[in-house]
Design a protein that fits this description.
The complex is a heterodimer of chains A (306) and B (359). Chain A has 13 helices and no strands. With 306 residues, chain A is mainly alpha-helical. The longest helix of chain A has 29 residues, at 2-30. Chain A is globular, with a radius of gyration of 19 Å. Classes of the chains: A mainly alpha (306), B mainly alpha (359).
């Protein structure tokens, strides 16, 4: 039983990386912008966060550095696609390619470096409950932050006026513009918030989840996070559960590898990627399901005054 | 203050000027990086832009690396022109290398030179198969091809890894994760003695001509481009978007697979975990910097090849990480996209009171 409790704990931990990034991407997609640079932002943020912790020894400063890195890159992307109306796909791709190169370049010094063992976390009182405590209440605070963030985003998007404005810009930037909302500035804000959350996810990955310097350590999680927003049909709660589901797939394959199952490890390592493809195909099969919540202007350029 | 003003017509000058301006920006940022790293920027620039062209042998090496980039980029240009986003050419390259390598491993000392076309064909089919998965899922299930092709890159790398660590591992290879070195007969024929240039270069040049004719002189190519530029118009005209999707993905996948076959049976000569060299991703940049135009792609492939060679030299001569190549590649695409604004807009000076409230 104890090992299943540990598996659940590991699943929540792995899902947190995906959840934070995907929630960020959800916000900028709700405003109508797709940022394919998620992987690149996470890579740069992972290195920025890791290097900061190596030099300062403080995890929280590291998270801040990751958010800063993600935010700055997202702002560059945002300026290009929102003001210069460059193609969103190509620009996001450029960001990912740049991020892969830059993180490898800047990260050379930190390859194979390890962060010191952390003291374990435990929610006072609840962490000592047998099994349940191990499964749910001995997590890094960031795991609970992801849950709180989900609740906050649900409240923000669907219960506040600002959330309504953000969604209306995603549906019809022309209508929002004619009502006098600064469409471009709001979109930029959404893109930067998305970048900061991707950055936080990248930093959490390199500081807590796998505290070891490896080139390309994000290994597709940014892309899986992008796919998650589609799976979840742009609904925050579904993003969170989707992230845990994929965290579970990742952990299950590690678990099976650890058990010495007679399947070559490469096939087990493929499962998160193949699962992404399969789920994507299953969900996209019904176009109505996707379109019902899809921001109508997503991916399209907006020219104010045209 | 400076303002952007829409041009009545797209500028032909900036369509060609923009990649050059982007290169200038990339070089300027590069100089800044060299200075930040405490390296002589002149030496840095020489390594990237002079060393790769200073001798006949250097030029031949430049061509060796430019060849796969050009072949993959030609296929991707067809794809991007029809507005299909295959960004997983890297995976199709790897699977092409795997299938071609599989055929090459069948050869023994009695095999005739017919094995060469078989190897190339296997590479093309492998790449097509891998891209075909994305086409099928898009066609049948409406699954986004960007995500599917990209996910398949990771799967392809793991397939290669499984084979070279597992069933295809050279039994006499001291347990290194690699296949045995391919038989001599499988070696792609070289064009000039003393260099590594092989018939891949000729194939690439035929590809340039072939793509030009297909895209600009055939009805099929025309249909594809209309579908990319104006999907609604293509639908009214009765052009099949399904056929465009399949054509785009199979052509680009086949091209990437062919490049993989040429690499693995050419300069590499065996399957190792280091077959994926990022050519599939760099080719995306080659395609855009070359304006999705076959002639432009020749030049941008040469430029990108300089970045690769320059990165290797920067490592050995200046002690800089080889990944500098990736930084410059990413910067080039970034600055290119920004400079492309000049094609549709001109920069004009306007006093700010006229435009107040226009934002």
């Amino acid at each position: 039983m104890e090992q299943y409790a540990l598996l659940i704990a590991a699943t929540l931990n792995a899902g947190t990386v995906l959840a934070i990034a995907a929630l960020g991407l959800l916000i900028n997609e709700r405003s109508g912008i797709v940022n394919l640079g998620a992987e690149g932002m996470m890579l740069c943020a992972a290195i920025a966060g890791f290097a900061t912790v190596v030099h300062t020894g403080n995890d929280w400063v590291g998270f801040g550095a990751g958010m800063l890195a993600g935010g700055v890159l997202a702002a560059m992307f945002g300026y290009l696609v929102i003001w210069l109306n460059t193609n969103q796909f190509a620009t996001g791709l450029a960001l990912t390619l740049f991020g892969a190169g830059f993180s490898a370049f800047a990260g050379v010094k930190y390859v194979q470096e390890k962060l010191p063992e952390r003291s374990s976390f435990s929610v006072p009182g609840l962490g000592d409950i047998p099994l349940l405590g191990t499964a749910l209440f001995k997590q890094h605070p960031m795991v609970y932050f992801a849950m709180a963030l989900t609740a906050f985003i649900i409240w923000f998007l669907f219960k506040t006026r600002s959330g309504l404005v953000l969604r209306s810009i995603g549906e019809s930037p022309e209508a929002a513009h004619s009502l006098g909302y600064p469409v471009r500035r709001i979109r930029l804000a959404a893109v930067v918030v998305g970048g900061m959350l991707c950055g936080l996810a990248g930093a959490y990955l390199s500081i807590i989840y796998t505290p070891l310097g490896v080139e390309g350590m994000v290994s597709g999680k940014g892309w899986i996070a992008l796919a998650l927003t589609t799976f979840a049909t742009w609904r925050p709660l579904r993003v969170l559960f989707g992230a845990y589901l994929f965290g579970g797939v990742t952990m299950l394959q590690f678990h099976l590898q650890g058990q010495g199952v007679e399947i070559p490890s490469q096939f087990l390592s493929m499962t998160p990627y193949i699962a992404t493809i399969v789920v994507l195909a299953l969900i996209s099969r019904n176009p109505a399901l996707i379109r019902i919540n899809m921001p109508a202007s997503i991916g399209k350029p907006f020219y104010p005054g045209s | 203050m400076l303002k952007l003003e829409a041009r009545p017509q797209a500028s032909k000058f900036w369509a060609i000027g923009s990649p050059l301006l982007a290169l200038v920006f990339t070089v300027v940022i590069g100089i800044a990086i060299f200075m930040l790293m405490d390296k002589d920027p002149i030496k840095g620039l020489l390594v990237f832009f002079w060393e790769p062209i200073k001798s006949g042998y250097a030029l031949s090496e430049l061509a060796v690396k430019a060849t796969p980039l050009a072949i993959i980029a030609l296929g991707l240009a067809v794809c991007f022109r029809s507005n299909v986003w295959n960004i997983g050419a890297e995976g199709q390259f790897v699977i092409g290398a795997v299938t071609a390598g599989g055929v090459a491993l069948l050869a023994d000392s009695t095999t005739g030179p017919w094995i060469i076309p078989a190897i190339l064909l296997a590479g093309v089919l492998g790449g097509m198969l891998w891209a075909g998965i994305a086409a099928l899922l898009r066609d049948r299930f409406n699954a986004n091809e960007i995500l599917v092709t990209l996910m398949l890159v990771y799967v392809a790398d793991l397939v290669l890894s499984y084979l070279v660590y597992g069933p295809w591992k050279d039994p006499n290879g001291f347990n290194f994760p690699q296949t045995k070195t391919f038989e001599k007969v499988t070696q792609i024929p070289r064009l000039f003695a003393g260099t590594r240039i092989n018939i891949g270069l000729v194939i690439a040049l035929f590809g340039v001509a072939g793509m030009w004719i297909y895209m600009f002189r055939t009805y099929g190519g025309f249909q594809l481009q209309v579908g990319g530029l104006a999907p609604a118009a293509a639908r009214y005209a009765g052009f099949s978007s399904r056929r465009a999707l399949w054509t785009a993905l199979l052509v680009s996948g086949g091209a990437a697979g062919l490049a993989g076959a040429l690499e693995v049976a050419g300069p590499i000569g065996q399957l190792t975990p280091y077959v994926p060299a990022g050519y599939g991703f760099a080719a995306i940049i080659v395609a855009f910097v070359g304006r999705l135009n076959p002639i432009g792609i020749v030049f941008s492939a040469i430029l990108m090849s300089m970045f690769y060679i320059g990165g290797e030299l920067a490592q050995s001569r200046l002690g800089l990480p080889k990944s500098l190549t990736g930084v410059f590649q990413g910067l080039l695409l970034f600055t290119l996209l920004a400079c492309d604004t000049l094609i549709a807009y001109r920069v004009v000076w306007k006093s700010s009171n006229v435009t107040s409230g226009a934002k």
